[in-house]
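Researcher: Next entry in the queue.
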Amino acid sequence: MPIKIAEDLPARSDLENENIFVITEDRAIRQDIRPLEIAIVNLMPMKIATETQLLRLLGNTPLQVNITLLRTEAHQSRHTPLQHLERFYKTFAEICHRSFDGMIVTGAPVEHLPFENVDYWQELLEIMAYADGHVYSTLYLCWAAQAALYHLHGVPKYDLPEKVSGIFRHSVLCPGCSLFRGFDDEFFAPHSRHTEIRAEDVGKASELRIMAQSDEAGLTLVESADHTQVFMTGHLEYDRDTLDAEYRRDLQKGLNPQVPKHYYPGDDPANTPPMIWRAHAHLFYSNWLNYYVYQETPFSLESIAKKTKTPFTSRREIL
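Model: Structure for this entry, 319 residues:
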């Protein structure tokens, strides 16, 4: 939350230069406040674990946030009870008439497939088109980030010779960006993926900029110039034991996985991994909610649909 100060307080310029969030008394008087409406499109197979991870981070803010959980209709989940999905999730058809302040689209374990071969690809295309006209800022994670960069900006993905799995050090390339307020110059984040995007391809899209990268794991954070699209290839939302569970699952499948890098002390899976990314995870999600959503979204949700010239039309309305 901002600190409220007098407009002519001498400390104001120093605080603003240090990226400290301040608000003048005049602006505070004019502020209207309402709950934020955030949609989470959960494409992960273990939906309960993923929703818990994201809600934990979104809940670490004094802002009131209303959450709508979404699932795809085209894919039948085998790892989440149908009762849970029917009780707590909505389909896109049920919400496409609404607008949201923010949306998060999770990753999915389908990286080996061409995008067009994913069984819910057409539905995801519809969701991305909808987000462009009915969501103020959309955060795409891991595979969803690659999918959105491919569809919206023509950025291809590339198969990797081996899975990128572990905890990697990242450099902040745009320290003045609001997403990085409170960040150190470097931060750690988990990665778990079989494919990558490359800087030379992102650089061809003038509307995009690279925000953070890792010498080992590659590009990690990209955003559109207007902050309406944020692409995170890592998993700041992961729990301490998420990579461990993935590693042991792959062992049981006989996939002979590499031990996640920089994860277990001494690279020994018998040791408990240290949690070294949680603080920056909370900061990142709090910053996105505050600066890219709360501070920018119009008070009237209906006004969000007016920010693009092309209104969203559902496939269902065309057919």
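Model: The longest strand covers residues 158-172.
Researcher: Noted, moving on.
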